[in-house]
Amino acid sequence: MTLSPSGSSVEEALSFLDAHPEIEAFDIVLTDANGIGRGKIIRRHELQGVYENGRHLPISILGLDIVGEDVHETGLIWDAGDGDLRAWPIPGSLVPLHGTNPPRGQVLLSMYDLDGNPMTSDPRHALKREVDAFAARGLYPAGAFELEFFLLSNERDSEGRVQPARAVLDGRASNKTEVYSVDHLHGMEPLFSDIYKAAAAQGIPAETVISEYAPGQYELTLNYRKDILRAADDLLMLKRLVRMQARRHGVTACFMAKPIERYAGSGMHLHVSMQDGEGRNVFTEERDGEWSPTLLHALGGLTATMAESMLVFAPHANSWRRFVSQSYAPVAPTWGVNNRSVALRVPAGSKSARRIEHRPSGVDANPYLVAATVLAGIAKGLDEKLDPGAETTGNGYECERANGAEMPADWLSAIKAAEASSFLKEALGEDMHRTFTAIKRAEYLRVARTVSELDYHLYLHEV
Description:
The protein is of the alpha+beta class. It has helices spanning about 10-20, 45-55, 125-135, 180-185, 190-200, 230-250, 295-315, 365-385, 410-420, 420-430, 430-450, 455-460; strands spanning about 25-30, 35-45, 55-60, 85-90, 95, 105-110, 140-150, 205-210, 215-220, 250-255, 270-275, 335, 345, 355-360. α7 (about 295-315) runs antiparallel to α8, α9 (about 410-420) runs antiparallel to α11 (about 430-450) and α10 crosses α11. The radius of gyration is 22 Å and the shape is globular.
């Protein structure tokens, strides 16, 4: 038996097997640069071995593009002989999967070299590195993500477009926005009931559900975690179970940033605060009417680094369709208090709960990389005592630029900015930066050379 570098223990597996004699198999899931879970389904008798010795998986898993094809420029394919490394369980992620037949469980994995060192193109390690750097300062990031998504019909409309799912309760159709409608939620009650049961079984603190600002769009909130690594795990596990439960109810859970052009897209807001060794929130102001300098410097770092970080927050071609003025998707590195038109919102509320709501990311982004980049931006602000500039009041969409920063206007501009960014290379680590930007460049080229239906619509009979 090899000592687990992830901190997992065989006792966790044995206790779980004893408590769940009904479970026959397990999904073992490694998260790649796009936030996609890749791995295997193993039989019950194999689980103990994963905890005793890890599980060999090919290094190329972390060098795949969005459709699962190799990106040779990552250096993780033939340059490394497509050899195996060793994946180890993430402690606390071994859970049952609600509603599976026969019953299955799930465990998240993280990749390590054969000698036990973290494999630095694993996105979870990028976040762990930033968390450890803050711990060396005596600071401990806490946070929670919000999950926005669409529930869509499995069938397209007469024009081939996606359409909102009918209510799973009674088949009722609606193409209305119905934001915050409680009655509208009742039609999806059987599905959300199963989502909550699945979340409870996995220890995921899923809380409020609302009908969001588009037909078929919903939001699930997650309770705050003192460990931001666990908060990112929560988000990935919640996405996975929402997709699974939606499929069982005959609808599609969609995590594209902008699936329907006429309506708002889906964000993945990250709420983040910072605690000292005694559990005090260092973003809390000491005197009424005066913001904490720590909070202001954190905001300064986030505004200063936002432009070069946008590829992490908006990683796909579709991501950039979300950034439309007055659509609850911020378009400039602005900050404000109780203002949803800015990129960095300081929510109203008690001083002890003071936090930053980071709003640029789409729900299609990788939460590990988002959190790592946000923490690195905060660290830069604290180190250099950066000024965030004046608070934005009123309509933040009228601010095309803030603090002199010029935001990338499209996906290619964001790719170029990320490739050239020394900040992002430090934030993600050199290997993760190379892997991520190479994958994004390859995906851009795939999209650029694809002849789409829009091409035929615009040009087939016209030129």
